[in-house]
Structures are given as structure tokens and as C-alpha cells.
């Protein structure tokens, strides 16, 4: 609990300037307000990222990661062998991105 008149300590994931540790305000990131599902094997520059790494990247860029495709999903990153999750996204009319398209979208935050 913080005493009245004393500012609360910064969140552990927030730098003193109010930005996330990656240096970009998450609410202003390229995926702000989007719910993103990642399915299939990533290729290209994203090949080195684990599923957890992809989910962290989504969140660092302002998005919310989802473990599956639903009506609330706004973007599906569909890698090789995406299968039923890709088919579900197509049926629901959800935007699909290849790993390369997604990498271009978040290029400023890739190592």
C-alpha cells in the first residue's frame, strides 16, 4: 500500500519513463487492441522464436496473445502446418498473416 501523496512504484515491466522494457509503449504498438493467435511452425526470421517467445512478442507490441482462434481473434499468424486453426480463421473471416508478413509488422521490435 502506498501512502497518500506518494506515487506508486513503477510496474516491474515498465521503465521509469512509462515505456515497456522493450522501449515502446505497448498501448501504441503495432498490434494495439488486437487479439493474436499463432499457429503452425514459424519460418524465416521468426523461426528461432518458441511459441512463448511469439506470445511475448505479441504482448510487447501491444497485442493480446490467444491460444486459439475464436470470434474475438483479430489476427492469426499462420506458419507451416497451421491446419485447423488456419481453417477456422478462414471460416470466420479473420485476417491471416504469414510469418514474414508478421515479422514486417513488428520489425522494430525484433532482435
UniProtKB/TrEMBL annotation:
Domain BRCT: 26-100
Record field: compositional bias (Pro residues): 1-10
Record SMART domains: BRCT (SM00292)
Source taxonomy: Bacteria, Bacillati, Actinomycetota, Actinomycetes, Kitasatosporales
Pfam families: BRCT (PF00533)
Region spans: Disordered: 1-32
Residues in the signal sequence: none
Organism, as annotated: Streptomyces fimbriatus
Designated name of the protein: BRCT domain-containing protein
Organism domain of life: Bacteria
